[in-house]
Write a structure and sequence with these properties.
The protein is of the alpha/beta class and about 325 residues long. It has helices at about 1-20, 35-40, 85-95, 115-125, 145-155, 175-185, 200-215, 250-260, 265-280, 300-305, and strands spanning about 20-25, 60-65, 70-75, 105-110, 130-135, 160-165, 225-235, 240-250, 285-290. It folds into 2 domains: about 1-185, P-loop containing nucleotide triphosphate hydrolases (Rossmann fold, 3-Layer(aba) Sandwich), CATH 3.40.50.300; about 200-305, GMP Synthetase, Chain A, domain 3 (2-Layer Sandwich), CATH 3.30.300.20.
Amino acid sequence: MTDVIQNDDQNKERENLQFKSGFATLIGRPNVGKSTLMNALIGQKIAITSRKPQTTRNRIRTVYTCEEGQIVFLDTPGIHKAKNKLGDYMVDAAERTLSEVDVILWLVEPSDYIGAGERHIIEVLQNTKTPVILVINKIDTVKKELLLGYIDAYRKELDFAEIVPVSALKKDGMEILLSCIMKYLPYGEPFYDKDTVTDQPVRQIAAELIREKALRCLEEEIPHGIAVTIEQMKFRKKIVDIEATIICEKDSHKGIIIGKQGAMLKKIGSLARRDIENLVERQVNLKLWVRVKKDWRDSDYLLKNFGYNPGDTE
């Protein structure tokens, strides 16, 4: 019996020598497609997406597992100039991940113009020893013959481990990028079982899906001032009952979110319900309310209440 146990341990050690497992973070300016890329890489929608900047507010952890290894992705808020405590929290969450991972994916848009936002990120990356893969996203929006010029412009700024052009929207270049990431991961046991795609609680993903629909439906100035909290989530055999509250900063915003005769709130709820039903794989009974919390983005207490913990990005 002892020999069998020893043989099993030896087999496991040999497997670990072949299996890679590690962490990769996605960074970049707001709205370069980090969440879209992460969803494309793992083949499932976990992070919310929007054309409006600063959509992602927390670090979102997702998992990709194949025969070669396991990549744990951290999708971070966009690095930008903070205007309030929520902004400080978001930037801190993004920058603190750089020393905690095995490889950094820096997403940029296809251009040979390197603006102030990119220059700030370059300064940040110059102070890290972590390998950096430059990911030029949205290549479906430019002519292919221009890509070499864009690559050359960035290559002069930083010593990249790899440079990979992709289109997250079209899922072009995903296999090449995954292969490049694997090169920089250490050998070892997986952190999660092979069926895990995220460590995010279902409640948190549901809240984010509601916020995504609000981002897409509402006017430009309102979305940055909203948060979503799940008050109750009750699982029955074939139905999930969810009660959620959309938090806004002004009374005038509340009226816009609700809309004429509740039309806007119904639209947000209807769109969110579909995605949540895909998530939980059953029918969803979703009830939404709207509440005003003035200047909540500058309140440590309310930020913590709504799931953003200033000073702690773990």
